[in-house]
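Hi R.,

Here's the chain you asked about this morning:
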Amino acid sequence: MSLVKATIGAARDRPCTLVVCRGCCCGNPRKQPDVDHQWQLDRLRAAAADSGGRLAVRTTDCLGPCGQANVIVVQPATAGRAKGGRATWIGWANDDDCVDDLLRWVAAGGPGLAQPSPTLELQFIRPPGEARTRARGRGRGRARR
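And here is the predicted structure, written out as tokens:
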């Protein structure tokens, strides 16, 4: 007898989702006066509107790594998660090239379904909780107490 993994509820058809930080540092023109933060958000939202439901965009107050602002988290679609894709954190998402690379990647499927460009990979950062865990020596290979 084979076991079939079923996805139920809202997760069944979850699109690739961009969570855009717009807290104390990200999206702040005083911290980054050369970045058109509203244009960036409008462009991401326009891509989501044109995606036919394959992409969603949300904003949040603060994701944490303020030294790497602007931060965007790319959450995989259901199909990407089923193929091993996990949330990917992108830092320094401040220019047109980064937004272009990001939109190309998610249009191709995003985490688990498509390979990001090498230049976008250079902007991948560790999630704040993972960085804290590793700093305390409780990362991979160590048992949690």
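One quick note: The CA atoms of residues 81 and 127 lie 17 Å apart.

Cheers,
M.
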